[in-house]
Fold this protein.
Amino acid sequence: MSYDIQTGTINRGIRKEVVDALVKQTAEASYKFKQACAVVSTDSWKNSFFREDPTVLAGPTGNTVATGLPRGANFPQQTVKWEEVSVRIIKYGLEDNIPWEDIISGDINVQARTVIKLTEAVTKAVDDNIWDALTQTLGTGTNIRIQSYAITNQAYWNVSSGAIIKDVMTAASYISKKNYDISDLLCFVSPENKVDILSYLADKGAQFPQIAGDVVRTGQIGRISNVTFIESNSVPTSFALLVKPKTCATFKQLVPLQSTTVEDPYKSLKIRVVEEGTVELTDPLAICLIKNTRAT
């Protein structure tokens, strides 16, 4: 990762725009779960949305829909249902002070490393929150709406009896049965399951293409059929998450990731990183949590 913050320079200063550039550069390779959501700006602290009933409309009892209506007869009537849901903005932030002496004479680039680590912490907090929202805290919250599929008979992904592709396609069928298009799905996996997936496919002699740029930028480790696999440290070892991206949820962003610097001359430099937003779980049935991918 390149940057132009230097230690011991004649200028002995650090420009806010340089910090912002480094924050955005670091964040690009840090976010994983935002690609699962539609990102929409907001200016409200409390955000409300309407969760639509995904059930295909059927005619009232004794009537059909569109098919076989007599000439001149009344049309069957049905009502689309929505549920109003409200969520509040969550603030994520972190800061650190760099002593003036470290800025002008440090052996390592303390400024740049501080910016990178602060940014990684904030983006990881955002990712963790999106994970909790999409999984409804691993299905332990109240009013669970997402779907789940549990691997049985100890056929974990790291054993010879594992059937990774079959499990993922079974979870995809759950989403398809709820009338969502499954031509382009994302499957988030843990670093441990990444090893299992690559090993499984190598053993099967399968082709598993990957693009180096995507691995760095989005965590993509490959694509099979209609599913792109993404590695994330937010995913616990024994779980995976299959979603219809940009449909399953919306990330309402009040303040995008940004930074500022506060200088106390000849004493220290404070670097602060912040983001504010929240997740609207608009289509929970476009999500399937896969359980028991590894022995607990």
Confidence is low (pLDDT under 50) at residues 7-12, 211-216. The radius of gyration is 24 Å. The chain has one domain: 16-65+80-291. Helices lie at 16-28, 100-105, 110-139, 164-177, 191-204, 212-218.
